[in-house]
Structure to design on (434 residues):
């Protein structure tokens, strides 16, 4: 045991706890909602990178956190692992996620980094076996080191492409070994700063071939989890190739991967793309590529991805409504890709941030489940499109030609009259649940 969380008790479901007690008021993992335990619906995960590797900097200031495990040694990596699993036990969340660079120190060579990685994976595996916490997904950090300044799979230097491929192979192997349920690819620098030095067609082809190799390797080792792409429109590069869900789907179609790869959708990235979170979720479900989510939020007065913990129940409810409509999570879950504010220095802040976020998600999820069970939104939507279920509209949507439809209009009898979309009424309906 470490002393980092000394004096902090495990967070329990206690809806009547006093205001100064750290407890779940809404998240009861055993509560049955929509036919399943809430824990099995929400599948909460802690992000190793923001919780244990991030030093508290921002674009205008450096490290504010002083953690006893900060440093580039294997002993400190093991200490970080000890602290992480202590936090998992305090929160009682079932999953966690990592990048390779979060959990092992960088070596002087690829071989040394791999040895460090494999050693810490063994240590994490022992912790998982003892505690029962599971891996939602693993991924490779192909963006922080200077070698990736021009991308990984899309890099103009083929040696960087090869290094990235070897890194991803190791991370898939480790994810498989730890029983991970997904493998995520986030193209942190898979994009460009200027077209003056960029060959778009070449870079796109490289990214497609890279992903094909990932899928081929997944099948070759018998990994049954999902391969996920996490869309993001910009930041750190000016324009990234995985801009949003629709862009990712067109990319997958081009390379024959639409039945092999799904998406991990982050709330903050959806906002940066000019969409709502629920839009991206609904788009992924409609295209058949919905996989998992990163739950966080942006500060709407800031121009970048601030990765804050969720605190807006109505927004969360609308997101989980789309998740439930899509059939819920299978291999995916709710990963808190969120970090403390740089002034939140104390160990208790880390526990309270996650506990509060889990409560917000639980409130939003229960509201979403109640709305879906009530059926008001689905009934209103069905009524709005009911005309398409009758003739001649059914024929118009399937076999009629443009000329045949025009002839029917010209005969007369078709006189379109606008109908109210009833947006405010539906917004009032949602407010009854949240």
């Amino acid at each position: 045991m470490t002393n980092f969380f000394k004096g902090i008790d495990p967070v329990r479901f206690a809806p009547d706890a006093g205001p100064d007690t750290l407890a779940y008021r809404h998240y009861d993992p055993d509560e049955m909602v929509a036919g399943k335990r809430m824990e099995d619906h929400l599948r909460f995960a802690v992000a190793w990178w923001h919780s244990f590797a991030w030093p508290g900097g921002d674009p205008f200031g450096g490290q504010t956190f002083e953690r006893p495990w900060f440093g580039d040694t294997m002993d400190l990596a093991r200490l970080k692992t000890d602290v992480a699993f202590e936090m998992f036990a305090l929160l009682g969340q079932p999953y966690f996620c990592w990048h390779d660079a979060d959990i092992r120190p960088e070596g002087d060579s690829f071989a040394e980094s791999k040895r460090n990685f494999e050693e810490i994976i063994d240590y994490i595996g022992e912790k998982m076996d003892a505690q029962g916490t599971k891996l939602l997904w693993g991924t490779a950090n192909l963006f922080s080191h200077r070698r990736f300044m021009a991308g990984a799979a899309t890099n103009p230097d083929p040696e960087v492409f090869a290094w990235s491929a070897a890194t991803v192979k190791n991370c898939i192997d480790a994810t498989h070994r730890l029983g991970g349920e997904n493998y995520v690819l986030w193209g942190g620098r898979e994009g460009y700063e200027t077209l003056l030095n960029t060959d778009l067609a070449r870079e796109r082809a490289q990214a497609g071939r890279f992903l094909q190799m990932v899928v081929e390797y997944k099948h070759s080792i018998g990994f049954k989890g999902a391969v996920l792409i996490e869309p993001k429109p910009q930041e750190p590069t000016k324009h990234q190739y995985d801009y949003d869900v629709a862009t990712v789907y067109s990319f997958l179609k081009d390379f024959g991967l639409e039945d092999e790869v799904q998406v991990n959708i982050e709330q903050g990235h959806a906002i940066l793309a000019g969409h709502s979170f629920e839009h991206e979720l609904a788009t992924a479900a409609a295209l058949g590529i919905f996989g998992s989510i990163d739950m966080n939020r942006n500060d709407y007065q800031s121009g970048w991805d601030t990765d804050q913990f969720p605190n807006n129940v109505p927004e969360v409810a609308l997101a989980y409504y789309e998740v439930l409509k899509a059939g819920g999570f299978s291999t995916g879950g709710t990963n808190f890709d969120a970090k403390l504010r740089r002034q939140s220095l104390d160990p208790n802040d880390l526990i309270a941030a996650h506990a509060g976020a889990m409560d917000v998600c639980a409130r939003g999820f229960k509201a979403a489940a109640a709305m879906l069970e009530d059926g008001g939104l689905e009934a209103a939507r069905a009524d709005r499109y009911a005309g398409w279920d009758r003739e001649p509209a059914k024929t118009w949507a399937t076999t009629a030609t443009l000329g045949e439809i025009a002839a029917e209009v010209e005969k007369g009898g078709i006189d379109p009259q606008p109908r109210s979309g009833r947006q405010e009424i539906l917004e009032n309906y949602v407010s009854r649940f949240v």
